[in-house]
Amino acid sequence: MKAYKIPEATVMRLSIYSRYLHQLMEEEIDTIASGDIARGVGVSSAQVRKDLAYFGEFGTRGVGYKVEELYSHLMKILGLDKRWSVILVGAGKLGSALALYHGFLDRGFHICTVLDIDEKLIGTKLNGVIIENVDVMNARIIENNIEIGLVTVPALSAQNVTDRLVESGVSGILNFTPRVLKVPNHIILRNVDLSVNLELLSFNLGYHYKR
Amino acid sequence: MKAYKIPEATVMRLSIYSRYLHQLMEEEIDTIASGDIARGVGVSSAQVRKDLAYFGEFGTRGVGYKVEELYSHLMKILGLDKRWSVILVGAGKLGSALALYHGFLDRGFHICTVLDIDEKLIGTKLNGVIIENVDVMNARIIENNIEIGLVTVPALSAQNVTDRLVESGVSGILNFTPRVLKVPNHIILRNVDLSVNLELLSFNLGYHYKR
DNA sequence: TAGATTGTTAATCGATTAACAATC
DNA sequence: TAGATTGTTAATCGATTAACAATC
Known about the structure:
Two copies of one chain form a homodimer.
Chain A: H1 8-26, E1 31-32, H2 34-41, H3 45-53, E2 65-66, H4 67-77, E3 84-89, H5 93-100, H6 103-106, E4 109-116, E5 125-126, E6 129-133, H7 137-143, E7 148-151, H8 155-168, E8 172-175, E9 188-191, H9 194-206
Parallel strand pairs in A: 3-4, 3-7, 4-6, 7-8, 8-9
Antiparallel strand pairs in A: 1-2, 5-6
Chain A binds a DNA duplex through helix 3.
C-alpha cells in the first residue's frame, strides 16, 4: 500500500487477472487461491500476490480470495468502475475498425464522438455515431466530458491532431500512428502499435536460425 | 553478438527504430548518431547502442550510422525482409477490422486466407479475400505456406481454433481474444489485448488520486 | 490443532544507465 | 591532430522469485 510507483507490467497483469476472475464468476466459483489464478493466466503465484500487495490486502490466509470481491477491487484499481467518454479522431480503416470493435465498450470505454476531415465520411454513421468535422472537437470534448482521445489519423496529421486534443482538454491520448508524439507532462500518452506484436512473432520465428 | 536471450523490450524498440529510420530515409537524411535516434523516439542514446550491440556493430565511431544500411539490418533482424503468409480465423468485427487495416501488409504480413463458421459471411469478400469455412484450414495452410495465425473468434472457440491451427502446422499464433491459450512449446504465441492499453491509460488517469 | 495460503522480506535475476576507452 | 561518437564495461536500478512467518 501507499506504493508511489507501480510497475506497468503489474498493471497489465491486474487487467489480465480481472478478466480471468470474470471468467471464474461465470463458472460460479467463489473462492480462489493465488496459485490457481497463477496457473490460469500463466504467471507464478508469488507474482500474483506481489502484484496485489501494491494495493492492499485482499485475501484471507489459509483460504484465498473471494472471486467477486477481488474482481471488483481490481476493476476499481484499474479505473474501470466508471464509464469513460472517448473521442476518436480519424475514421479511416483503423479508426472505423476500433469504433466497431465491442471490446472497448465492454470495459467501459464509450466512443461518443468520431471526427474526420473527409467530406465523404462526414455525416455518415459509424456504430451509431455520426462522423463530424474536426472543427467541432473542442465543443464535443467539453459537452461530453471527454477525457480520452484515440488518434487514428494518417501519420503526418498525428502531431497536429494531438496538439488540438491537448488544447481542448483531454487528459489521456492513445496513439495508434507510428509517429512519436510530443505532449505536455500532465498528459498521459500511450502508443499502440498493432504491427509490433506481429513483428515480435516474426522475430521469434526467424531469429533462432542465426544464433 | 551471439546473444542467446534478447530482451523483448529490445525487439520492440528495434521495431520503433526501424520506423524512425524509414521516416529519415524519406527526409533523405543519410547519416545519424545514436543520440539523434534516441531523441527521435524518446529513449537514451546508451539504450539505442546497447540494443544494437546485441546483433553486431553497425556504426562508425566518430560518425554514426548510415540510415539506409541500419534500416535494412533492422528489417532483416526483425524478419521483415520477407513476406509472411497469414491466416485470419474469425471474420467478425475485430477480424474484419484487422483484415482491412493496411498496417500489416505495409510491414510484410499478407492475410491470404480468412475463415469463419458463419454461413452469412462465408462466400463474401474481405479486402479482396473470400471468406471460407473453417473446414478448409488445413488445406489452405499447406497450400499457401502459412506460418502465422490470427485468432479473432469468440473467446469460447479460441482454444479449439488454436488447437486446429497448431495441428495444421502454423508456427506462430497471435491471440486477440481475452482467453489464455495453451500451445505446445515449439509454437510461438503472443497475446494482444486491445483494451489493455486503454486500461493502462485509465489506471494512470485515475490512480494518482489515491496515493 | 493441523493444513493451507496469504502477505512480506530477502535473494536473485535482468535490464537500463553512466562512463569511457577505442577509433573514425 | 582535435572533435565526435561508437561499442562495451561496470554500476545502478527495478522487477521477479523463493522462502517463510503470520494467521485463518
